[in-house]
Amino acid sequence: MQAAKPVLYSYFRSSCSWRVRIALALKGVDYEIIPINLTKDGGQQFSEEFQTLNPMKQVPALKIDGIIIGQSLAIIEYLEETRPTPRLLPQDPKKRASVRMISDLIAAGIQPLQNLSVLKQVGEQNQLAWAQKAITSGFNALEQILQSTAGKYCVGDEVSMADLCLVPQVANAERFKVDLTPYATISHINKTLLALEAFQVSHPCRQPDTPVELRA
Amino acid sequence: MQAAKPVLYSYFRSSCSWRVRIALALKGVDYEIIPINLTKDGGQQFSEEFQTLNPMKQVPALKIDGIIIGQSLAIIEYLEETRPTPRLLPQDPKKRASVRMISDLIAAGIQPLQNLSVLKQVGEQNQLAWAQKAITSGFNALEQILQSTAGKYCVGDEVSMADLCLVPQVANAERFKVDLTPYATISHINKTLLALEAFQVSHPCRQPDTPVELRA
User: Which family does the record assign (chains A, B) (predicted)?
Assistant: First the structure.
């Protein structure tokens, strides 16, 4: 019996979904996408069917090897352990710590504060300022950290999990009109990464659920 | 030359600091604490000296093996890789995925939304409702996930990184007066864990910077 193709529950614009799409592309995993529209029908992530799959009512969730995993970094770590090539974590534990620190800085320190459900709570007139504050505060720290960790990419010269977090977060920053001038290192690494195929095929503007007017 | 003792920058009440204190206790790492008071002097994490150590201006940060690591889960993963006994991640990749999913659910999905700096932004009259919403929404998901992962602890019968996240988050829930009645599994596991020595010596009520009136 052939193993079932992994299924990614994804939303084109979700930065956390994009992280996982990059990982799958880099590792050459063939997968199917089931789009979950976070704004349509009051949010398809709240459907009973999806809640059974992911009680967090969030994307991404990955059905793979007979299990369902939620939380993008947990998914990427699982892919890394079960499909180790090419690696997304360096071999040296100290460098791995840098990769995970940067990943968590973005995944726990920035993204949760500017995601859709929080911005709804904050109220329409405050959303932009709120999101900008979360992102600039995190990017101020990140720019400083990258001074000592970065090579061509976030940590040295190998693409790592940290880079999978960086690019989608920069896209969010642009969407929220954050002035990126103070973040020369972040911007430079982002640009370098966006030239790689795995970052392009996984891009929000090229997903099956990307609205026609946003396609590129 | 003797290796320098690890130094943990910690605040007694910080749930993220507590996670790391439990890991250090379980692994029997002898360390020194430098308390960073998040409320005194307008927040000691904002001092120039501390910012140099941790640009995120957050605790915990761990100085160890010649490096400084921020972000609690990155610290715990580093400890796991360099001091593997007793292990805090199971051997089976699928179970490791469950541990990381639960850890991230708390560390990225709950804690960041109810931490001190966010609650300050939300304003005093909204703080309690805001924190309660973040915690109950996360705990609703967690209680459901634990139905399929839990044994004696969050994932099976071995203490894992997920448990290091659970106990401090339940303490936060209690501080924000969340009704824990709907969370029978969470409450039961929390109680079981609190009986373990590593969770007791690391408890906020027993830290060098615990105010006298909160000591136990």
Answer: Belongs to the GST superfamily. Zeta family.
